[in-house]
Design goal:
The protein is 73% helix and 7% strand. With 261 residues, it is α+β, with helices and mostly antiparallel strands.
Length: 261
């Protein structure tokens, strides 16, 4: 026995009632274990784990997208600058050619100067267009990657939406099971003397959810320790109102009920 040299005794009007209290305690233990399993399953639903993985994937996509956006913005700014220069050169060429057609050149020298400027601007525009083409070639795979990221995000969000529905259903089912377990627990707990119930709750909190265990074939079902023959004899000779504890784990032992013969 873990609780002193002598067994404790249930406070009860008769030994049959005390034995019933111990049986109720064991039934309460079974109900508490079932509720623990429901809570454990609720916390570890596969839908919840998958949702967490999807959130991680979305975070990674967001990180990649931010890096890509910074790089794309740099090249897009360069492309805009080139387009501005190309448009300015084109506008200047158009203005000079319009002036030439309208006879705006006062002399042959002016015509030659204007034609030279058109040629220089045209060459400059070609250079700018080549540079813009190079920038566009760099941007093309970036745009494709941005589209891939967006498609991946849409796929993940779709799966996540379905998982949230499934998770809500699974949680609701387990919440119902827990509610039913609590309803079944109440009459069992009321059948156990308050002091014994408090001791059971304390042991359960310290011993992995199991505060009481059946004595089966000379051993504790809580830790599987076989009790010494002298201890088993003491338990057999004790009154049904006695409470025994496992020497190894300290749990309350509930002996099998004696026959009436």
């Amino acid at each position: 026995m873990a609780k002193g040299d002598h067994p404790a005794t249930l406070v009860s009007g008769d030994e049959t009632g005390a034995s019933d209290a111990l049986e109720a305690l064991l039934a309460l233990q079974d109900e508490d274990l079932a509720a623990d399993q429901f809570r454990h399953r609720r916390e570890r639903l596969p839908e919840r784990a998958r949702l967490a993985a999807l959130q991680h994937s979305l975070a990674e996509l967001g990180h990649k997208e931010a890096q890509l956006a910074r790089e794309r913005d740099r090249f897009l700014a360069q492309q805009n600058e080139l387009e501005t220069e190309i448009n300015a050169a084109s506008a200047r060429i158009a203005a000079i050619e319009s002036a030439l057609r309208a006879g705006g050149a006062a002399s042959y020298r002016d015509q030659t100067a204007m034609a030279s400027e058109v040629e220089a601007l045209t060459n400059r525009r070609h250079q700018l267009e080549d540079q813009e083409l190079e920038v566009m070639e760099v941007l093309e795979p970036m745009n494709a990657e941005a589209a891939r990221i967006e498609a991946a995000r849409a796929t993940i969000n779709g799966e996540a939406a379905e998982l949230r529905v499934a998770l809500n259903h699974a949680e609701a089912d387990l919440d119902d099971a827990l509610s039913n377990a609590r309803a079944r627990r109440a009459p069992l707990a009321s059948a156990v003397p308050p002091a014994l119930l408090a001791e059971y709750e304390s042991l359960r909190a310290r011993l992995g959810g199991i505060g009481a265990a059946r004595l089966v074939r000379g051993g504790c079902a809580g830790c599987n320790l076989s009790l010494p023959a002298t201890e088993l004899d003491r338990i057999r000779r004790a009154s049904d109102a006695s409470i025994f504890y496992c020497e190894q784990c300290g749990r309350i032992l509930v002996p099998e009920r004696r026959s009436d013969s």
